Structure formats: C-alpha cells, structure tokens
Amino acid sequence: MLRSLLGEPPRQNEGILADTMDAILKMIRILQKEIERHRDPSHDLRKLEIWIYGLISSLDELEQCKYAANYFRRKVTHDYLEDMPAAEKGDYARYVYFYKDGFIRVFSILDKLGTVLNELFELNTSKVKAHFSYFTVLRQFRYLKVHPELADQLFDIKDKHKESMSILRRRRNTEIHYMNAEMQDDLWQRHQGLDGKVELENLDKHLNDLEHGYSMVCESLHTVFTYTNQRWKKVKQS
Questions:
Q1: Within a 13 Å sphere around the CA of 17, how many CA atoms are in the beta-carbon half?
Q2: Domain tally, the chain
Q3: Cα–Cα distances in Å, from 193 out to 24, 46, 169, 184, 189?
Q4: DSSP bridge pairs for 80
C-alpha cells in the first residue's frame, strides 16, 4: 500500500520475509483443516486462526513502515533542522513518523506473538503476569521447562538483537509514556549547550536499530511457525 502511494512498484516477498509468510500461511491451512475435520465447537481453533491472520497483517505493516522510513530518510540531506528548506522538513517529519510507527509495531507484533505462543502451548502466562509481554512468555518456557528446542532458538534470536532492541525499547517507552522520542535527542543537546543549532539525531543508526527489530520479528515468527508446523505434522502421524 505505502509503496503505491510513494510511486514505487509493489513489494515482492523474498528472503526471510517470504519464508516467514509461507510458514505462517502453512499454519493457517493446518488450522483450517482441523476446523473442517472437528467443527471446532469451542471456537478455540478459529480464535487462533484469526490471531495468526493478524500476525500476517502486522508483519506486512511493519515492513511497510520500515520501507517508508528509509525512503524519506534518503531525502534528508541537512544535519540541522534550521537549515532545511520547507520540503525537506516535510520529508524529515515523514521519516520520524514512519520510524516511530515502526519501532512501536516491533513490540506490538512480538506481544501478539506472545499471546499466540501462550495459547498454542498452554503456558498459562497470565498466572505469572496478568498483562504479559512476549518476553514474559519466553521466560515461561524456561520456567515450565517445556519445548526447550523452541525456547533456546527464540532466546538465541533475542540475544542476537539485544543491543538494538534495548535501544528501541527505551525509545518506545519514552514515546508512549513521556515525550516524543526524537525530542529526547533534542533535549539532551540543549543540556550540552544552550546556544547554537540542534543537530539531528543519528538517522542511520536509528534505522539500523529498526532493521534489527524487524529482523528479530521475522526470525522469531519464522522459528515459531516452522517448529509448530513440524510438531503438528508429527502429532498427526503418530
């Protein structure tokens, strides 16, 4: 959708994004067959189907935000807001919008994945914490000592992206609870010297952190649904 608004050709899924989408769609087909076979009187499978469809939409939206943030970042050529012509200020504002939307979506989709994991593997995480996050669900795997193969892979992914995810989490918390995340950078600079212009935050570093967040989402989703699909197949064969 965003690509068409920007005059860009439609996205062609490839690499980890294509593999992740395929794994999720395979899980949906499995659920649909189970619903057909057993009629799903409790509606538990239908609920999972809807939740997992939601993950596809959320992943698509995250990728679009990341793409748009990079698109508008390329149009920002000045280091100081005061030096920008009006058009470039507009492009910078659009970059900020999609960058912030992107890092908020990273944690949103991970928490949705946590809800799906909690349901799929009956982890009962709500007994530990009423409003739990994806990371609480991960710890629940270890606490209950269940599905260690899956848990180890997910923890490895988390650790690989730990530094960037910590930065994104702080910016997400700042954005939601305190002030606009980009204004925190301005505030820090104002404290360094009250005279002179405020230099823009490091846009490329921020986008690199967002890329890590996106990669963590894709890798985590792909790992979960590859594991779940294989496990479901083994159960049906036994």
A1: 15
A2: 1
A3: 51, 58, 27, 15, 7
A4: 199
In a domain, 236, yes or no: no
Write out pLDDT tens, residues 164-216: 999 999 999 988 877 565 655 554 444 444 455 677 889 999 999 999 999 99
Q: Domain range spanning residue 111?
A: 2-231
Question: For residue 238, is it within any domain?
Answer: no
Kindly state whether residue 186 falls inside one of the protein's structural domains: yes
What's the whole-number mean pLDDT along residues 130-147?
Answer: 96
- Please give the model's pTM, rounded to 2 decimal places: 0.91
Cα–Cα distance between 35 and 66 in angstroms, integer? 35
pLDDT the model gives residue 38 = 83
Amino acid residing at 33: K
Q: Which of left, alpha, beta for 53 (phi over 0: left; psi -120 to 50: alpha)?
A: alpha
User: Among residues of the chain, what percentage have pLDDT more than 90?
Assistant: 74
Q: Which residues contact 220 (CB under 8 A, 6 or more apart)?
A: 110, 113, 154, 157, 158
Quick check: is 237 in a domain?
no
Amino acid present at 194:
L
